[in-house]
Design goal:
The chain is built from nine helices and eleven strands. With 280 residues, it is of the alpha+beta class.
Length: 280
């Protein structure tokens, strides 16, 4: 059934930072429904959160376009939807705990989500939706190394985070995030598309080349500029920091979730109908 046929909740257009350049249908936006009690139940479910299903289910619920697969969305486009949902559901002010780099005191401050805007596409992709980069130092048989890569998708992000988490568990916290990122996003090296051979080259890449490649990938990938201004509540010093747009960005803090869980318990235990949250 078409999601729009019986829709009563308000919705809006969310435009993608990618401008649709990397999708076969070139779709540059999504129709996104505002969060309702349905999504609130999903996002506050301990079981769904434990199995990393909550954000996926919520996104599938609010995205009205039948032709959008959330796993194929670029990370930046997915993040633009999360920003929209956070701002329209909880307001533009986001509270955070910081440690001031000037006075070394910790405290609570906030920033405005409107600071987070879409990055400009400084270098367009080729006809296949790929980018090309030549490593500055490393060579193979005297020839420059030409790397072709694609932007990170939401599925890539989930797989990289999960596999890195597993690796850290069994390797004393050692992260292989960057290696996993390269393995997922690099399509070919000097025309070679074999993943095993690509991985062998990645493992031999000098640190300087790796940093250079990663900097270029961050530069050209479409997404959200997540650098925000944070004012120290003690000395008023203003810091410019990158703030990640993760699955907890929707504002469902542990305190908020506890209120919802308490309400659910009371409703189930006493069966006395709705409870005014102002009374909890």
């Amino acid at each position: 059934m078409n999601k729009l046929s019986n829709l009563t909740a308000p919705f809006d257009l969310v435009f993608f930072p990618s401008m649709g350049l990397f999708y076969d249908n070139k779709k540059a936006y999504a129709l996104v429904k505002y969060l309702t009690g349905v999504e609130e139940n999903i996002l506050t479910s301990p079981m769904l959160a434990e199995h990393n299903l909550a954000i996926d289910m919520a996104l599938k619920s609010v995205i009205l376009d039948e032709d959008i697969d959330i796993d194929k969305l670029l990370v930046g486009d997915k993040n633009s939807i999360i920003l929209f949902l956070r701002a329209t559901s909880f307001g533009p002010i986001y509270d955070v705990q910081i440690m001031c780099t000037k006075c070394n005191n910790s405290g609570k401050t906030s920033f405005n989500i409107s600071e987070m805007t879409a990055k400009d596409i400084v270098i367009p992709p080729d006809d296949e939706g790929l980018f090309t980069y030549v490593l500055p130092k490393m060579k193979i048989n005297g020839e420059p190394i030409v790397i072709r890569f694609r932007p990170m998708t939401y599925l890539d992000e989930k797989m990289i985070i999960e596999n890195d988490k597993i690796h850290q568990t069994y390797n004393k916290g050692a992260s292989i995030y960057n290696t996993l990122r390269y393995n997922n996003q690099i399509v070919s090296i000097n025309g070679i598309g074999d993943k095993e051979k690509i991985n062998n080259i990645i493992n031999k890449m000098p640190l300087k080349d790796s940093i250079s490649l990663r900097t270029y990938m961050d530069k050209v990938e479409p997404g959200i500029n997540n650098t925000v201004s944070l004012k120290c509540p003690h000395c008023q010093h203003i810091m410019r920091e990158e703030f990640p747009i993760g699955n907890n960005f929707l504002g469902l803090t542990s305190e908020y979730k506890n209120v919802i869980w308490e309400e659910s318990f009371l409703l189930g235990y006493y069966g006395q109908g709705s409870i005014n949250r102002d009374e909890t």
